[in-house]
Design goal:
Length: 445
């Protein structure tokens, strides 16, 4: 299924020397990415997916009047004035259990032992809890209903009731949850456990949804080593692919992590092509700057289809910090969207939050694409500085209307990122932010 529309290239702002704004880059991504085609899925497979159609209730819930207690179904007049001193003695005509096909009839002076969820039998007007009775044992008030196998006499004979009951007491009315014809769920609803429960309760075994996008994440760099392996001189552990795969899953995607690819353009190109069969979106990290070993740029700059306008990957510079180098476009026969992110861990993660997360949620056809934002007072020991003309995103913690920077501005500071739950946004035209100033904050948690 294609998840990208043909891109319009050749615009003035896409020249090699143009410094893209954050908003221009995001607008280009969201104008290209298209929601995935709807599919019919079984309920458990639809968890986390977005509902395509409104769901109408075909049958009321509950579908019949039923008891909310274990006790006895009675007529109100028969227990009027009942007390422990003067109990109402009723003939027990049998049991009414949940799922029972042929309910008993309760006539004057009669009662039926009833279980929670069982249908209220014809003739009965209320349910008295078993604790209000002697349980049919003739030994005073009981605390609970004994199993039928242990006390078969409780289902027949007589029961003494020690309290009166109002009409409809302890009765769940038919349709008191939802009525037939009501709208159970609206299109656009993300299906979680409660929504799946409701669908099952109204008899829906399958549902039409936008599927969760399949996102393939791979990092590049010959210096990268997998966790648990031995580090040698000049090597570092690959953290980006783990971070971005986890972030993609957090955004709602089904994410696949590919092991780090060495700095070889042909190997990277063939690896990406092999992954397209299971990808609605490809995310790479590293190799997008201007160095001699920036393999993503080398491998993907000329992969466009000559017969398809707008295909290919465009590498650009953004007026932001961190995350200046970025790449975006489509690849393969289905024009699968590809976002190429910088390799520094903080640059990579910030870029994911700003650009990849909205793309994933656009594929799901969600209206709420972005992390929530708020305003908070800057709590810092000194003024924050920011390069003129760049929109800066600083890691921070936010609580109680105050936001505190975490770590420095370096794009390699993974430990600081791990303790942050927000990003402070410093606009392009601001070079200094004094403590006590109200700032925009992106909430990550």
């Amino acid at each position: 299924m294609s998840s990208a529309a043909p891109r319009v290239t050749g615009q003035d702002h896409s020249g090699p020397d143009h410094l893209w704004s954050v908003d221009e880059h995001l607008e280009d991504i969201l104008a290209t990415v298209r929601p995935l085609e709807p599919i019919e899925l079984h309920l458990l497979d639809a968890q986390g997916c977005v509902l395509v159609d409104d769901i109408t209730v075909p049958v009321s819930l509950p579908p019949f009047d039923n008891s909310s207690m274990d006790g006895y179904a009675v007529r109100v007049a028969d227990v009027a004035g009942a007390s422990e001193r003067f109990p109402a003695a009723l003939e027990v005509v049998g049991d009414v259990a949940a799922g029972q096909a042929e309910p008993l009839h309760v006539g004057p002076g009669q009662a039926a032992r009833i279980m929670t969820g069982a249908p209220l039998p014809p003739g009965a007007e209320a349910v008295v809890p078993v604790e209000w009775t002697d349980g049919g044992l003739g030994e005073g008030p009981v605390r609970g209903m004994r199993a039928r196998a242990l006390a078969p006499e409780g289902a027949t004979g007589h029961v003494q009731v020690y309290r009166p009951a109002e009409p409809r007491a302890h009765v769940r009315a038919k349709g008191s949850d939802v009525k037939a014809g009501d709208r159970a769920l609206e299109a656009g609803t993300v299906l979680g456990p409660p929504q799946i429960s409701l669908l099952a309760a109204i008899g829906r075994g399958t549902v039409r949804v936008r599927p969760r996008p399949r996102v393939v994440v791979l990092s590049t760099g010959s210096e990268l080593v997998q966790p648990d392996e031995e580090l040698r001189t000049g090597q570092i552990y690959d953290s980006n692919s783990f971070a971005l795969t986890a972030a993609a899953r957090d955004a709602g995607a089904i994410a696949y992590r590919v092991g780090a690819v060495a700095d070889d353009a042909e190997t990277l190109r063939s690896t990406i092509e092999d992954q397209l069969v299971r990808a609605d979106l490809v995310v790479t990290t590293g190799g997008v700057s201007v160095g001699a070993y920036d393999v993503v740029k080398e491998a993907l700059s000329h992969v466009g289809d000559e017969d398809e306008a707008g295909s290919g990957i465009d590498f650009r510079k953004l007026a932001m910090q961190p995350g200046k180098p970025q790449g975006f476009g489509s690849i393969g026969p289905d024009h699968t969207p590809l976002l190429a992110l910088p390799g520094n861990p903080v640059s990579s993660y910030v870029s994911f939050e700003l650009f990849v997360r909205p793309a994933i949620r656009a594929l799901m056809s969600l209206e709420d694409l972005h992390r929530p934002t708020t305003r908070a007072t800057l709590a810092a020991d000194k003024a924050l500085t920011s390069p003129k003309g760049r929109r800066q995103f600083l890691r921070a913690t936010c609580a109680g209307g105050r936001v505190t920077p975490v770590g420095g501005a370096g794009s390699h500071l993974v430990a600081a990122l791990a303790h942050a739950d927000a990003l402070i946004v410093v606009p392009e035209d601001t070079e200094s932010v004094e403590p006590g100033t109200e700032v925009e904050v992106v909430l990550l948690g």
